[in-house]
Design goal:
three-stranded antiparallel sheet, Rossmann fold, Arc Repressor Mutant, subunit A, RNA-binding
RNA sequence: GGCCCCAUCGUCUAGGGGUUAGGACACAAGCUUUUCAAGCUUGCGACCGGGGUUCGAAUCCCCGUGGGGCUACCA
């Protein structure tokens, strides 16, 4: 059975990189008919918050990444909040201590810090010197009894090498002697990441650990832990990082990093899913992937080794693509609240028509608001250049007046009845169609850009068209 | 500093001994057209450097260089 997990720490919103890791795990599970587990790694008591838990759930939910086991979804391997597994972790630490594979350390952070600095000055690797390893039974007992702050360190095998056989990178060899006796239980009694994740992954029967590249260097430590327990390590797959425009690891200064903020900005979840899937994974030349395609086509073989730069332009393009493809009803649902917020309540049928007029003009959902303003506001200024070009012409008044009179006669007021009015007028005046339409567009919208003329006229309706033409006639 | 990973257009990538090095975004031009978009066509544009191996390297190996990561009582 394939079992994978996404194990975020709740110290902030679900960011792009985390979402992509979650996605790859989820896709692998769905593709393989396996299970996707969500485990919250909240052992950092200082930084973990409940709001962050919520934010992670929201992010995953927006992308449609559902978990088979985890918070709110009971499973046989819970609990799924790491802090609720404290006893389990402490028992396992104790087991290692009893077996002589781990030991108590009473060195203070200050002391260690000082040693690290000294080592750095001597240009030596800042490794723990193993001072407390040499403590006698009696010394340990005395310190333990005195209630002195303590941590537990893993006793590293001194020799040999540890091989990480990575599904994406192949075999990576690490020399054990370069590692040191790392801490597995902190002085607050909570396990460290490297320890807790090993115990939990094993107990939860995780078969594949798919995670960011930044964990590759941690993997030998974890493998050593598996070996110390006599457990079989899972398969590992380290996926490349996501970088910002300057090729540095993506962070706040690269703009919005939390996935949910993309929802607020007006991105569609399918666009986001498609985009982040392509960040570090590919399937030939294909660009467009719906959720089902991704599930069908995803494989670890398709995952790249090199890091990818987050490119907003491409995301925007994808978003536009998906907006053009979505059902009218859904687009209306997405736009409606924004329009109501900006322009107040309007007839639903009217809103629908307006939204559909901009269907293939939107890159982001909120673009609808500025683009459609003249559908909701009767008072607007005329574009300055437009006035020079289309109002300050000898014919302008005549055109607008004629248009007003003739449109008043149109019944029903639909675009196929409206169209002939424009064509006939242009012909009679010996003008090109554009010469009639441009002043009219300026009169009706105040701008030089709009949906096609006849749609525009129909949607605005006879009354507004007349009013606006009158106003423009006076102005010109 | 030590260790580890990575390296094809500006960006995402295809290709993995012999290719006119292909596609997508962005950019530019054109077409279409009542404008803006959309759509279509075309253009611009890359194998990090140096050594090997080979008849032949973008491709395999080594060394540099560059970028990233780890080296925490963060995950």
């Amino acid at each position: 059975m394939i079992r994978v997990r996404f194990a975020p720490s709740p110290t902030g919103a679900l960011h792009i990189g985390g979402a992509r890791t979650a996605l790859f795990n989820w896709l692998y599970a769905r593709n393989q008919g396996g299970q996707f587990i969500l485990r919250i790694e909240d052992t950092d008591r200082e930084r973990s918050t409940v709001e962050a838990n919520r934010a992670i759930f929201d992010g995953l939910e927006w992308l449609g990444l559902d978990w088979d086991e985890g918070p709110n979804v009971d499973g046989p391997f819970g609990p799924y909040f790491q802090t609720e597994r404290l006893k389990i972790h402490q028992d396992h630490v104790e087991q290692l201590v009893k077996e002589g594979k781990a030991y108590y350390c009473f060195c203070t952070p200050d002391e260690l810090d000082k040693k690290r600095k000294e080592a750095a000055e001597r240009k030596e690797a800042p490794r723990y010197d193993g001072k407390c390893r040499k403590l006698s039974e009696a010394e340990i007992k005395a310190r333990l009894d005195s209630g002195m702050p303590k941590v537990v360190r893993f006793m590293l095998p001194p020799m040999g090498e540890t091989i990480v056989d990575d599904k994406i990178r192949g075999k990576v060899v690490f020399q054990n002697e370069l590692l040191d006796d790392f801490v597995i239980l902190k002085s607050d009694g909570f396990p460290t990441y490297n320890f807790a994740c090993v115990v939990d992954d094993h107990l939860m029967e995780i078969s594949h650990v798919i995670r960011g590249d930044d964990h590759l260097s941690n993997t030998p430590r974890q493998i050593l832990l598996y070996l110390a327990f006599g457990w079989k390590p899972p398969k590992f797959a380290h996926i490349p990082m996501i970088l910002g425009k300057d090729k540095a690891r993506m962070s706040k200064r690269h703009g919005a990093t939390s996935v949910i903020s993309y929802k607020d900005m007006g991105y569609l979840p399918e666009a986001m899913l498609n985009y982040i899937a392509k960040l570090g994974w590919g399937f030939g030349d294909e660009e467009l992937f719906l959720r089902e395609d991704l599930i069908k086509k995803f494989s670890l073989k398709g995952v790249k080794k090199s890091p990818a730069v987050f490119d907003m332009d491409k995301l925007n393009w994808l978003n536009g693509k998906y907006i053009r493809q979505i059902l009218p009803e859904r687009l209306v649902d997405l736009c409606e609240p924004l329009l109501i917020e900006a322009y107040g309540n309007h007839d639903v049928e009217y809103l629908k028509k307006v939204v559909m007029a901009f269907h293939d003009r939107l890159v982001l959902i909120p673009d609808i608001v500025p683009l459609s303003s003249y559908f909701f506001k009767d008072e607007f200024d005329y574009d300055k250049k437009g006035v020079e070009k289309h109002f300050k012409t000898p014919n302008a008044k005549k055109i607008l007046t004629a248009l007003k009179e003739r449109l008043a006669e149109v019944e029903p007021f639909t675009k196929d009845k409206i169209e002939p009015v424009f064509k006939a007028l242009a012909e009679e005046l010996g003008l090109k169609l554009g010469q009639v339409i441009h002043p009219c567009r300026l009169a009706l919208t105040g701008t030089l850009e709009s949906p096609p003329m006849y749609d525009l006229v129909e949607i605005l309706g006879k009354k507004k068209v007349e009013e606006r033409l009158s106003r423009a006639i006076k102005f010109s």
